[in-house]
Amino acid sequence: MLLSPGSRPATTGSINNRYSVNTLFSMAAELDVEIEDDLAKAQRRLRDLKNKISSQSKKNFVLERDLRYIETRIVLLIQNRMALEEQREVERTLEEAEPSTSPSHHIDDRKLQHYSNLFFLLQSEPRHIATLCRLVTLSEIETLLQTVMFTLYGNQYDTREEHLLLTMFQSVLAAQFESATDFGSLIRTNSPISRMMTTYTQRTPGRAYIKKALEDCIGSLIEHTDLDLEINPVKVYEQMIDQIEADSGSLPEHLPRGVVPEVAAANEDVQAIIAPRLTLLMEIANGVLAAIMDNIESVPYGIRWICKQIRSLARRRYPDRNEDTACQLIGGFFFLRFVTTTLTAPNTWQLCSEPPSEHPRRTLVLVAKMLQNLSNKPSYTKEAYMSMLNPFVVNNKTRMNQFLNQLCEVGDFYDQLEIDQYMALSKKDLAINITLNELFNTHALVLQHLDMLAPSEKQHLRIIAEELGPAPAQVSRQENTSVEIPLHSRWERPVQEIPAALVDTVSSSDMLYMEAKSILVHLIRSLPRAAGRPPYDLTAIAERAATARDAVLVRKGIKVREMLRELAAQGVTDPSDGYALMRDEVAAELAHLGSLRERVLAETSSLQAVSRALGEQQEYMRSQLEQYKAYLHNARLAAARKERSGAAVGVGVGVVSVAGAKSPVPKAVALGPYRFSHAQLLQEGIIAESRVPDNRRVNIYFNIFSPAPSTFIIALHYKGREQPIVELDLKLDDLLEQQQENKHMLDLEYVQFSVPKLLALFNKTFKLR
């Protein structure tokens, strides 16, 4: 079994003295004793919650991937640049994401055993995955990332899987540093490796840190919807002359339109507008930076460990450069690949319920640019106006470098990984849950790159790959069922008896003492009423277990009773003082487990909030997909009408015009009107802003109806008046286009609607027909 650099392979005959042998005994004892005390129940609940979060994270990753894909296609469709066949292909991509539960592809026992060996090998020897990640293309990386991040190492709270994943990162980074010819491109280039690093930061622990550090400051910022902090002189100049023209009806000759940036920046009025904005922007950026730095202890260990590897590799690769070199690379990862992505899209990180409005969104983008400039010193040539914020960079550079170096101050995990790998051989329930397409895709990639992964005929990976034979083809989404693959090592013997593995390194009396103590702790946890309170009567506890109705307890009771006698005979413990030494150590261990229960409960409470947030994100993305599916469906229907009639039509139109005549198209049934009060729409956030006086709102209501597919009419009424005060005729594609362009407000003279929530209302009410 190959482990990370710097670690020593575990064997079944010996184990490194650095490890806590008592920990091994405790782990071994838990293999066959099912404890039912409060701690064990709390730990099981926590374990189940962590598994649920891992599953939720994987589903959300797939949904995010689908949304990214479909959003790019929607733009083409809006611009009428997508062929009908491509529309159908996109629609097929949006078929129901949950596959059928009935298996559609049988894997025989022999092949299942090979897959079991293959994935155990890939998981426990991450160098193979590291090589694959370097070899695949950008178009192939998404599916591989899904398998690596959310299946192979999908349990984000399992130390063994997490540490193996990090050793894979170490291998990838080492190769990246070795092959890079341009220092500046090491972290910043868009490559499969950079995509992999970004995906790692977006897993649940990274999201939890971002939420804790930035939710409050981002939330307070986006509330100020009218706060315009634009500092681009050209944009400020255009805004200024638009206002002058609106106020006076004309423009002075000395203020022409379409000026170059240098002319706009030289205008004194523009400078006067920008100056206070610069001050406020730097105050906001300082607040965001402080929130990031003050929560450094909440940064996930894995992210900090990757920072540590980047610093170590930078120092070795560029020994002649100063300390700023390493800090720039660390900053490129931590800020560019992690923090600034949350500032530019806070709603996708559940930091706000919907995308920020125009002005807060622009402010967040500018703050993200400032932090990026501070952390990795990019060039200002593309956006010269950002140089006006250089004082922020100068004033915080030393502070930033200290923070980036502090991120790296975490310990290594190689000792723990070796013991985890050792214990993995004894686990009977080691398994992964994987979809058929992930299984077949990984199989295909291994075969495609086998000469690079395992050039020797004697290497285990090549042996398994050749026995597996060709990879099956990808199946449809409906057939893409999940299967559980048990993981077994074909070349390592399972650990049967922990003491046998320690015989060369620990004395027999020490082994006997530690095993007896571990069993007694488990017996007291299993028999809390019989054990009573400290000081414990160890002999009585052993006797009570030996005469219990539970066969496992009987076996343990008899065994520990004989162990106590043997320890007394060897002079290690003294029965005359009630085995005081062991009794005190058992009590101390149980006290530690008591405090552990409180920590488990606190972690459970915290992760329940994480699980709820992931569920909300999943519901939001599913609603987005439903809207896109409806849009594409209507686009296809419109295109079909066009093919039949030979005339251009709009999405959702019920009558097709052909050379001035009307073609018969099945008439759509109008739906509605449905009535909604002003208070109801305001409470649900559908009305984002209202200019209706408070004393009149009780008399305001809205009628919403759909005269034809993808067409909606909103009418604002006042009680007692038959005719509406104002009406708004909407098309579904117009609303989707607004959302695609980040225009999230729709004006109806007296109120402003939230576009995403209005779309959700249409979907709920009319099923977006």
TrEMBL record:
Organism: Hohenbuehelia grisea
Residue ranges occupied by any Ras-GAP domain in the UniProt entry: 160-376
Domain of life: Eukaryota
Annotated coiled-coil segments of the chain: 32-59
InterPro entries: RasGAP_C, RasGAP_dom, Rho_GTPase_activation_prot
Protein keywords: Coiled coil
Leader sequence residues: none
Protein name according to UniProt: Ras-GAP domain-containing protein
Pfam families listed in its UniProt record: RasGAP, RasGAP_C
